[in-house]
Write a structure and sequence with these properties.
Oligomer: single chain
Number of strands: 3
Order of helices and strands: HHEHHEEH
Structural class: mainly alpha
Number of domains: 2
Strand content: 5-15%
CATH architecture of the largest domain: Orthogonal Bundle
Helix content: 55-70%
Number of helices: 5
Distance between the termini: 55 Å
Shape: rod-shaped
CATH superfamily of the largest domain: Winged helix-like DNA-binding domain superfamily/Winged helix DNA-binding domain
């Protein structure tokens, strides 16, 4: 089953290192497909396919002007992906804090019972 929601499409697009590099290069300003393609050891058509994936995921906007196509970064879905990651990080941080507190309490309990001879056998 292929996920078609924007967040899944964004993460699928970001899974490829060439596409991530394209996004990094577009951070500063828009570039033409030719400008992007000259950096990679793949054909211009292959770069265009990468751009299509990024565009469908809502991460890149292509503006066709005559024979040139300008590509620019679209940040809305990147922001959504970043917000999702941050929420996951916060949730996991909270879970790890709770686990750490639980383990600390267990160690204290083990020390207390061990001190009275009711703890572990040695």
């Amino acid at each position: 089953m292929v996920a078609r929601d924007r967040l899944s499409m964004a993460f699928a697009a970001l899974a490829d290192p060439t596409r991530r590099d394209i996004l990094m290069r577009l951070r500063g300003s828009s570039l033409t497909v030719s400008d992007l393609a000259e950096r990679y050891p793949i054909s211009r058509a292959a770069v265009s396919q990468h751009l299509t994936v990024l565009e469908k995921a809502g991460l890149v906007i292509r503006d066709r002007r005559g024979q040139w196509t300008d590509c620019s970064l679209a940040t809305a879905y990147l922001d959504e992906a970043a917000a999702w990651i941050e929420q996951q990080r916060a949730d996991w941080g909270e879970r790890f804090d709770l686990l750490d507190e639980h383990l600390r309490n267990r160690r204290e309990q083990d020390r207390e019972t061990d001190g009275y001879g009711e703890g572990k056998q040695r």
